[in-house]
Amino acid sequence: MTCPAGRWPDIATHTCKVCMSNCATCTTCDVSNVFTCTSCLLGKVWFANDNTCRDACPVGFFNLSGTCSPCAVSCKTCRSSAAFCLSCYNAVDANGDGIKYLYENTCLTSCPIQYYGNPTTNICQHCVINCDDCTTNNKYVTTQCETCASGYDIDQNGQCGCSAS
């Protein structure tokens, strides 16, 4: 039995039924009428995990030419490629790694020198001026310098000030 575009053949009733929403074309896989979208309406994306067409890809996937493709394992959201992260998971990921911080569209378990991991935003943020390495107080998201740039010393507030010498 052949049906026109946008419809699928119901073998039990010998009729053509309308495809699920957002599908331009679909097909049945077996006698239980489980069907699969074979193409999506314009502006929709295909999600292979459940063979459906959607308005947008779910978290952990990005739109690659109309198909939802998985982001890199540490990326919660990504765009244009699997490794171009927009946000990171803030818990243990599939690799068993801990909290991730976003730095230049990459998710890292720790931030590079002159940056600290903000526990509220999960983004690597630049240390205060003249501070080469810093940490954060998780409760208040305030930074403390660990080491200062040349010519500066750590003061009683954990900030870098001009050297006394």
Concise summary:
With 165 residues, this protein is an all-beta fold. The protein has strands spanning 7-10, 15-18, 23-28, 35-40, 45-47, 52-54, 61-64, 67-70, 75-78, 85-88, 101-103, 106-108, 115-118, 123-126, 131-137, 142-148, 152-154, 160-162.
Work out the helix count: 0
Task: Tell me the series of helices and strands, N- to C-terminal.
Answer: EEEEEEEEEEEEEEEEEE
Radius of gyration, rounded?
26 Å
Q: In terms of per-residue confidence, which ranges show pLDDT below 50 for 5 or more consecutive residues?
A: none
The general outline is: rod-shaped
Strand arrangement, major sheet: 1-2
Percentage of residues assigned to helices? under 10%
Word description of this protein:
- With 165 residues, the chain is mainly β.
- Among the domains are: 1-56, no CATH class; 127-165, no CATH class.
- 0% of the residues lie in helices and 46% in strands.
- The chain contains no helices and 18 strands.
- It has strands at residues 7-10, 15-18, 23-28, 35-40, 45-47, 52-54, 61-64, 67-70, 75-78, 85-88, 101-103, 106-108, 115-118, 123-126, 131-137, 142-148, 152-154, 160-162.
- A two-stranded antiparallel ribbon has the order 1-2. Strands 3-4 form a two-stranded antiparallel sheet.
- Strand 13 (115-118) and strand 14 (123-126) form a beta hairpin.
- The chain is rod-shaped, with a radius of gyration of 26 Å.
- The chain starts with 6 loop residues before the first strand and ends with a strand.
- The model has no long low-confidence stretch (mean pLDDT 83).
